[in-house]
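hey m, so remember when u said the tokens were messed up on ur end? i reran from scratch. heres the input so u can diff it against urs
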Amino acid sequence: MYVCICAAVTETELLECIDSGARTVDEIGDACGAGTGCGGCVDTVDVFLAAADCPSELSQLPMTA
């Protein structure tokens, strides 16, 4: 799934940036370009950053179809 259409950044790429140490929207923008275009994805990027910083119990559940 694309998180940022302007920079063609996928969810996987965003998670890789976070795993590599990006902790702010600006750091994500520097790493992959997400959030540097129209800004429509900034809230979504923020959610991914918050989930990485403080994961919920739901993230531990198995993913099923």
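this time it looks ok to me. Residues 3 and 17 are 13 Å apart (CA to CA). if urs says something different then somethings off w ur setup not the seq
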